[in-house]
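Sequence in, structure out. Go.
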Amino acid sequence: MIVHIQESEYYNFAVVLGETPPDKEPIAILKTKAANEALHYAYEWASAKANSSVYAANAKVYIEAIEMNRQSLNEGHSDKADYVQLIYILSNLTYWRGVNSKESRKALKDYSESISGGS
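Output:
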């Protein structure tokens, strides 16, 4: 995570906390075709709007960090890691409007519920 501190006459710097996710779209990382397509459309939107929307910028980072989040948990817990990441992604897709938005949000929500394990 990179935390940018607002510029002033006293300071101008950024703080890096831990690893940062790769700046690229994960390809076919989820278990279903529908979920992967939905994630792709969400990533396209987030990438296009990241400079003008904090929600899009957050969604983009969370999508890029899916694999890294999996690695932070023990082996065999990728569903739990994906479920948590999808909660964050979906909360930042709330203001996404346009082509594929409603269907993609629904597909990601359905997928997250299918892997929640009763969470």
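Check: The CA atoms of residues 1 and 18 lie 6 Å apart. The chain has one domain: 23-115.
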